[in-house]
Amino acid sequence: MAMPENGTFCWNELITNDVAGCKKFYSELLGWKSNDSDMGGMTYTLFKHGETMVGGMMKITQEMGDVKPHWLSYIAVDDIDAKTKKAGELGAEIVV
Fold this sequence. Notes:
By secondary structure, the protein is of the alpha+beta class. Strands 2-3-4-1-5 form a five-stranded mixed β-sheet, with helices on one face. It is globular and about 40 Å long. The longest helix has 12 residues, at 19-30. 23% of the residues lie in helices and 36% in strands. β3 and β4 form a beta hairpin.
């Protein structure tokens, strides 16, 4: 698999209470195929469109608190430490 280009969206992840409903919805709407993986105490669903991995999905856990269902998008960067520092300088609140 090729490395994603710096500054591009590289992964999408759905956090939801309705895993079964979301599998059905995105499969019917977008033609995605899903594959569940046991991640040691939780199930992680991978979504593919054709041969391309497009994202993942997991159930909201008790440890997440009262978080609402949402999509997370990940952006590839060439130097995480430098980008984190710059983000802070530009006003971002660094949480983790």
